[in-house]
């Protein structure tokens, strides 16, 4: 089956296509049919069986840890299931615990969630690497890291311009200074192949709800072996290896990342997240990457002809699923797109689209037609 025929079939799994030209998959991914089915089926079991339904859901929890691990070529023992990317980043920050007098290096292309935990909850100074033309240059990053740096935090694919880091280059800088590297992979996993162990990262945070096609309320943190002995910032019964002893006087923490797990997680979400990853595996990351590259490249070439100000880097290696541009009266354009049932995002004075594999060139054309019309009415 060629790609077009395959996409035609796959679109049947996405009821959203009947309602929207949905081009904001890196925000909240629309629920694929198998994900909705898995969650509905769990709810039915819970409705009819109470606790009895939870055994299979706990099994889904273990399998989800394994699947998250496989996605980043790591081991399940290094995976903590969290409620979001934000929770994962906060947990990593609490494990790192930067002290007063130290600094943490972030970038101005980060999302708020990447900078707020350091700004609000920790005493270290926060140093911002300034972007240029929607990119972070390695020499600018290296210039901010010194012997007092407690951590470097980056988005593997940044949420605004869509710039994709070369993780090997970042890792070479953090390694030189023996500084932990925290990678937010929310806009990367599902599309970009990241190996958390080569070169080794310290922490990787992600959510199920974007390119992994799962629900909100589920994310994960990868914690490298060297941080697994850290005292968890909070604990609960699931943190303990001796839970079956029911010994309220003594908590023997798990030796793996389960020590950072507290109480029963969002199991409805876990079941959905697992179904999202199974779907991703069936479709194949390479196919998804190829499709998204085709759609984003086409969109960028046409946007360039229209004459909008594209913030996303052009080179294939420097971007993934996001295309961002600025133009006059962007809020008006966003409203026009929404009126035409085209779903995309607007912030920082521009428009963002993140097409996924199930989108089509025809849908991109539909989007471009509205942009062309808007620019003809509102020239730069
Ligand atoms: C790169 C990145 N990190 C973090 C987040 C926030 O994710 P969560 O709501 O799972 O904390 C987003 C959401 O858009 C994002 O794009």
Report on the architecture of this protein.
This protein has 380 residues and is of the alpha/beta class. It has two domains: 3-30 and 284-377, Aspartate Aminotransferase, domain 1; 35-281, Type I PLP-dependent aspartate aminotransferase-like (Major domain) (Aspartate Aminotransferase, domain 2, 3-Layer(aba) Sandwich), CATH 3.40.640.10. It is built from eleven helices and 13 strands. The chain has a seven-stranded mixed β-sheet with strand order 2-8-7-6-5-3-4, sandwiched between helices. Strand 3 (103-107), helix 5 (112-121) and strand 4 (125-129) form a beta-alpha-beta unit. Helix 2 (33-49) runs antiparallel to helix 3 (52-71), helix 3 (52-71) crosses helix 8 (267-283) and helix 4 (85-96) packs parallel to helix 5 (112-121). The relative contact order is 0.16. Pyridoxal-5'-phosphate binds at residues 84-86, 111, 113, 155, 159, 184, 186-187, 207, 219. Residues 84-86, 111, 113, 155, 159, 184, 186-187, 207, 219 line the site of pyridoxal-5'-phosphate.
In short:
With 380 residues, the protein is of the alpha/beta class.
């Amino acid at each position: 089956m060629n790609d077009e025929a395959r996409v035609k079939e796959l679109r049947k799994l996405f009821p959203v296509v009947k309602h929207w030209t949905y081009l904001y998959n890196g925000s909240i991914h629309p629920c694929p049919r198998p994900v909705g089915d898995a969650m509905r089926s769990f709810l039915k079991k819970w409705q009819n069986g109470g606790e009895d339904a939870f055994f299979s859901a706990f099994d889904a929890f273990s399998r989800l840890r394994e699947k998250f691990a496989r996605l980043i070529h790591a081991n399940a023992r290094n995976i903590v299931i969290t409620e979001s990317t934000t929770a994962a980043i906060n947990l990593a920050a609490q494990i790192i615990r930067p002290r007063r007098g130290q600094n943490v290096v972030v970038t101005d292309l980060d999302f708020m969630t990447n900078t707020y935990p350091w700004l609000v909850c920790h005493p270290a100074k926060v140093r911002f690497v300034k972007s240029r033309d929607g990119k972070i240059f390695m020499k600018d990053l290296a210039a901010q890291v010194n012997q007092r740096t407690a951590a470097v935090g980056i988005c593997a694919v940044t949420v605004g311009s869509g710039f994709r880091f070369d993780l090997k280059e970042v890792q070479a800088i953090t390694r030189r200074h023996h500084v932990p590297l925290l990678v937010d992979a929310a806009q990367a996993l599902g599309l970009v192949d990241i190996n958390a162990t080569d070169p080794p990262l310290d922490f990787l945070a992600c959510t199920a709800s974007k390119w992994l096609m799962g629900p909100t309320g589920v994310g994960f943190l990868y914690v490298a072996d060297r941080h697994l002995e850290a005292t968890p910032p909070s604990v609960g019964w699931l943190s303990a290896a001796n839970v079956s002893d029911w010994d309220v006087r003594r908590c023997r923490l798990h030796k793996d990342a389960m020590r950072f797990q507290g109480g029963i997680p969002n199991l409805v979400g876990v079941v959905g997240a697992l179904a999202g990853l199974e779907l991703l595996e069936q479709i194949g990351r390479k196919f998804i990457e190829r499709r998204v590259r085709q759609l984003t490249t086409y969109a960028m070439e046409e946007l360039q002809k229209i004459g909008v100000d594209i913030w996303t880097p052009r080179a294939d290696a420097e971007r993934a699923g996001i295309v961002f541009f600025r133009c006059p009266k962007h809020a008006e354009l966003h409203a026009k797109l929404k009126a035409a049932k085209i779903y995309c995002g607007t912030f920082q004075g521009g428009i963002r689209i993140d097409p996924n594999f199930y989108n089509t060139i025809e849908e991109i054309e539909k989007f471009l037609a509205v942009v062309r019309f808007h620019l003809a009415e509102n020239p730069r």
